[in-house]
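pls design
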């Protein structure tokens, strides 16, 4: 089949590359000529493990191409995916659909023969209906259907998520469109992947409801962690104790500094605004948004308290800046809230992230960036772990201790065992567990 993927951001590029690996002919389209030029040279503009190889292999096989010319890509396509950004709109938190609707108008002008236009971007309920109306108004004789096909890709494991998903959701009331989408996802049918066909509005809501629920789990365990610290309980054991219940499950129950990234912050906020507009407020999600915002500020206070009540004049070694490991995504990362607060309190920040520093430089001011973890730690007063990259899980602890002015580690991801840290001579503060002193 022939696919046009409009937008070569995270979702568009990963989806386009994976569809081409299924054997489909895919052209990825973007207005950014410099991005397309880089992709044609084999340069991947985002960090996602395995994506560079996947793109290169399918380009070499002739199944994947890149273009700035939407009008030449759309007429021959069986399916046109809209995978452009839907950021939070400034001022009110609604999803900004201007890119979606602009792409829709261009697609309408280029349609030739039956085509399914698919919203892959995360969009509020009713967007598919508006996309359909725009095309009908602009091109009344067009032969098309509009379907919703939300993505469920986790940054850092997106290729695996696409190739072996928990489910595929398609929203359409058209039997013709359903048959086309079935053919498109045929390789997953062969793997017995559940494929759920619904109406468009249900499909659109599934994405928001799923992300809001996961964000709620994260926020819940973070609040339980705060309670654990007050009463002397261990949040790791609490997480395990409730996660073994099959009705709850153990995923997204790791306490930390709050959720971030490209999905949870904007999707929870968009769901809140959509529900308010529909006069069916989602009070739980509203509380999640508020609690998560407060959580990040609380983590800055936690660091200051662990440092003795003041960080003025102290050099802090920060390990990890991206919102999670295996990505360079800095969008709504906890570091963006925590580090400026520490700087305002007089701290000097030295930082290292395996992939996120280039993006971080655009968003954080007056940070001293280092080449690796040990350079970051050398001569610092103490160390803070903000992102649980694998290379931070097995640090040479005697070397770390000798490089620091204080034997203090503040681990906001709970990647070390408190008893082990005490044995190595650290004052160790983590999340939702009692702090430990050297033995």
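designed seq:
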């Amino acid at each position: 089949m022939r696919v046009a993927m409009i937008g070569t951001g995270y979702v568009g590029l990963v989806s386009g590359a994976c569809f081409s690996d299924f054997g489909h002919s895919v052209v990825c389209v973007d207005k950014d000529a410099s991005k397309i030029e880089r992709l044609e040279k084999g340069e991947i503009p985002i960090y996602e493990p395995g994506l560079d190889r996947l793109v290169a292999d399918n380009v070499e096989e002739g199944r994947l191409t890149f273009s700035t010319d939407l009008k030449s890509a759309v007429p021959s396509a069986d399916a046109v995916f809209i995978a452009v950004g839907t950021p939070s709109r400034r001022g009110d938190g609604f999803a900004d659909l201007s890119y979606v609707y602009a792409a829709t108008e261009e697609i309408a002008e280029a349609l030739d023969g039956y085509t399914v236009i698919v919203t892959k971007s995360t969009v509020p309920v009713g967007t598919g209906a508006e996309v359909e109306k725009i095309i009908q108004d602009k091109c009344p004789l067009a032969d098309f259907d509009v379907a919703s096909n939300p993505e469920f890709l986790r940054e850092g494991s997106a290729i695996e998520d696409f190739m072996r998903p928990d489910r595929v959701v398609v929203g359409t009331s058209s039997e013709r469109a359903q048959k086309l989408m079935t053919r498109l996802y045929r390789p997953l049918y062969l793997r017995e992947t559940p494929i759920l066909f619904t109406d468009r509005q249900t499909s659109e809501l599934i994405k928001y409801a799923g992300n809001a629920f996961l964000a709620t789990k994260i926020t819940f365990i973070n609040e339980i962690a705060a309670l654990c610290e007050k009463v002397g309980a261990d949040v790791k054991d609490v997480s395990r104790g409730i996660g073994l219940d099959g009705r709850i499950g153990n995923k997204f129950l790791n306490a930390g500094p709050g959720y971030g990234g490209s999905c949870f912050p904007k999707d929870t906020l968009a769901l809140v605004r959509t529900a308010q507009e529909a006069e069916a407020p989602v009070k739980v999600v509203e509380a999640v948004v508020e609690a998560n915002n407060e959580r990040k500020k609380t983590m800055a206070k936690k660091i200051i308290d662990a440092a003795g009540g003041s960080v003025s004049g102290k050099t802090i070694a920060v390990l990890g800046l991206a919102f999670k490991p295996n990505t360079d995504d800095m969008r709504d990362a906890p570091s963006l809230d925590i580090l400026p607060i520490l700087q305002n309190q007089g701290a000097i920040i030295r930082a290292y992230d395996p992939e996120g520093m280039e993006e971080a430089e655009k968003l954080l001011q007056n940070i001293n960036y280092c080449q690796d973890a040990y350079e970051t730690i050398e001569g610092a007063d103490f160390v803070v772990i903000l992102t649980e990259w694998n290379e931070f899980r097995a640090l040479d602890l005697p070397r770390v201790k000798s490089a620091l002015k204080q034997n203090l580690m503040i681990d906001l991801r709970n990647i070390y065992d408190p008893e082990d840290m005490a044995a190595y001579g650290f004052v160790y503060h983590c999340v939702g567990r009692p702090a430990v002193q050297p033995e």
